Amino acid sequence: MSTAPIRLRVPDDASRLPMTLPRLAEKKRLGEPIVMVTAYDYPGALAVERAGVDLVLVGDSAAMTVLGHPSTVPVTVDEMLMLSAAVRRGLRTPFLIGDLPFGSYEASDEQAVATAQRFVKEAGCDAVKLEGGGSSVWRAAAIVAAGIPVMGHVGLTPQTATALGGYRAQGRSAQQAARVAREALALQEAGCFSVVFEAIPSAVAAEVMPHMVIPVIGIGAGPATDGQVLVFHDLLGIREGMGAKFVRRYASLLDEMAGGVAEYAADVRARRYPAPEHGYSIAPGELAAFHATLENERTSGRDH
Ligand code: KIV
Hints:
Layout: H1 21-30, E1 34-38, H2 42-51, E2 55-58, H3 62-65, H4 77-90, E3 95-99, H5 109-121, E4 127-129, H6 135-145, E5 150-155, H7 174-189, E6 194-198, H8 202-208, E7 216-219, E8 227-230, H9 232-235, H10 253-269, H11 284-303
Helix pairs in contact: 2-4, 5-6
């Protein structure tokens, strides 16, 4: 087994209070950075709970990170609900946001509300996230009116990356930057409790921030936003390759996992595993009786 050190062993803090929308707004008011991360399963949820993050997103990035699709588009509502429910079971304190997948909210306000309600009722999410401006602003308003908190998402919106010219930074021309700003403000006006700014120039984010009264969470949007979000698998290196320019990697867990499984395979092949301590014992008398039973059955079988 590898003995590589795991840094910052964080004990569970039982006294930590659950994150709420008023607490989140207070963090913005006080200028305290807000920490958001994605998670997609129960052990991931245990890790982010223990790390003490504020917001957890079951992102539709699950399509790529855990389901192996080339984009976020194919993931279904049912798949997202299963992942979100698993995360819910591992979380106590962070605020849990479920990502509405492509095709689950765009068609009508009714569709958007019905999907959002499933995330709350079936998976226990505290809120949902949707992407883009335009008609997404009406969908956000409808979901908020139905009593479910909504997080918006502007800039690079992966569900519509094809229409945006691929996975590339947005808002790099004055016209594009103005569109990103208009969308962010419209989502704020629609009642979103927060908005994600993804892959936009730091200076554009800094220009928009004074107009945002709700917490803004950045990913590739520089330091001016109220908080940051990273994809769990990107920051922990549970992936091939480095990922986007804005990712900082804090561990190389795919290498760790592959190394651990390779050592296990080598131990099995060399008969080093299992060792005596991995086996169960039986009292000698019981073993002798068992042996005699087998012998009896074998010889009486021979007689018939
Ligand atoms: O799906 C996702 O992981 C996201 C974050 C990058 C914000 O939308």
